[in-house]
Design a protein that fits this description.
190 residues; alpha+beta; duf1285 protein fold; 2 domains; elongated; DUF1285_C; DUF1285_beta_roll_sf
Length: 190
């Protein structure tokens, strides 16, 4: 079957109905049906057959059946089939940040490019990875079930503005509080 046919079949199998939450893709164990020419770029753009998918509702629909399995691969999963796609970095991008409260009582809420909302906290931690070559930070927030969002540069700047000093293992760090957890962003410079 062609990739175009696979995509149409996949769309037809995604359960539709009222917005009651996400489908239970973690419970589905359909057979693997191969790779499909679908890619999520680092900036959050979804591509199909090399062309950006311009319809946000379609991207949102696909995002609800996205799964990151223990083999390190990303799949679109329905009750009857599973196809592998390519993800350049994280499958989502955190494009908006809302902060409420102050200090340890602060709560950070992120909105992704597919309109998922995530409150940073014990079940949705923040992390910052450094590129070994450039030392450029790459910040992420956990969204759901083994799926993360890369935090957009403008949103990361907001985090930096909210950062406060905190000592960790005797070393001074800058970081942010959310839901009672301190998330280090980077060490305090000399």
């Amino acid at each position: 079957m062609s990739d175009s046919g696979k995509a149409n079949d996949l769309l037809a199998q995604i359960p539709k109905g009222e917005k009651k939450g996400l489908p239970p893709v973690h419970l589905w164990n359909p057979p693997f049906c191969g790779d499909i020419d679908m890619r999520i770029a680092r900036d959050g753009t979804w591509f199909y057959l090399g062309t950006p998918i311009g319809r946000k509702p379609m991207v949102r629909l696909f995002s609800t059946v996205l799964r990151h399995d223990d083999d390190g691969c990303f799949y679109l999963v329905t009750p009857v089939e599973k196809v592998r796609i390519t993800v350049d970095d994280a499958p989502f991008v955190a494009v908006e940040l809302t902060a409420s409260g102050e200090g340890e009582a602060q709560v950070l809420t992120f909105r992704t490019n597919v309109d998922d909302e995530t409150v940073a906290g014990p079940e949705h931690p923040l992390r910052v990875e450094l590129d070994p070559a450039t030392q450029e930070p790459a910040p992420y927030v956990h969204v759901r079930a083994n799926l993360d969002a890369l935090i957009a540069r403008s949103v990361f700047y907001q985090l930096v503005e909210l950062a406060v000093p905190q000592e960790i293992d005797g070393q001074p760090w800058l970081g942010v509080w959310s839901s009672g957890v301190f998330y280090p962003i980077g060490p305090v410079g000399d």
